[in-house]
């Protein structure tokens, strides 16, 4: 029985997927995307299946699913889980079905030091730990084959080509894993190694919480032997042909292959077209949503045109050309959705939580919506840019969603 992965691939041709991002892709942001820039597939934040089983508040917040409200149009919705215990995962899968998710995605690629040390995420790519990852995948496939979860429930994996060096054999085993005649529905590969921090490779210094390959003896051992592009740690898409070859050689011919990493204006003004040219079945956009939050929903310039599959040659300035009133409207709608889902309003079922820390997490979005005029902009900055920068400074020191909305309402009233 086909899942939503196969159905959407047949319908759309090339899938545009919203990547799971910690502290970003919560229920409010997904609701905002569903209104203004809907992707083909939605993903939750990065969540542990042990936290799901224990009913921890932070995990349940990440996996919140308002099926009766805005979430009704956020379909299909995939829960991305991490952990290292196949038995716990087997118990958690029926719970995901009860919560209304359309599929599960196993994270075998997170490079954060604390996650790697468990070992989970990218730590499962290390030699000696890969068997845990394969056992978890086999658990999901066996549960579906045995009818413990619906046959239409999607099963996917997001991983990397390797830990300290490429390990295509592990990816082959993932593609070859089967139960009841069915394997993975989709495999997403972030084309960077788990032990190479992205920010370090881009000259931004050490990345807190990530493995620093200068201090990593395993990396030092292999650095001189590794072929480019793996030494420097940036994202390289030219390895996608190896992934396609693995699929042809494995029994997972029905598995969709998606790429991830480096999809943004900093690399190419034709990055969507370049992603499609890899021959993969789709791409996950993460950082690109901070460069242009409307990116996944563009139909006229920066996104795929559904009627022809064509791409804009100059999408990098689409969001930059968006006028300030439109940006403020979109920001206000995001704030309203955030208040709806994370703050008590005195009516109906209580929202997920009320905590000052939640609002501090939201503040990262202000830099997405509002222009930032730097000292080197010179005379190129417009009055709107300068006003947006002043608003950004004011909103960054606001203490609540209500205060931020009041600031935006005053600006709207005076304009």
TrEMBL record:
PANTHER family: DUS-LIKE FMN-BINDING DOMAIN-CONTAINING PROTEIN, TRNA-DIHYDROURIDINE SYNTHASE. One of its GO terms (molecular function) is oxidoreductase activity. InterPro entries: Aldolase_TIM, DUS-like_FMN-bd. The lineage of its organism: Bacteria, Pseudomonadati, Spirochaetota, Spirochaetia, Spirochaetales. It comes from Candidatus Haliotispira prima. Pfam families: Dus. Residues 18-201 form the DUS-like FMN-binding domain. This is tRNA-dihydrouridine synthase family protein. Signal peptide: none annotated. The keyword Oxidoreductase applies.
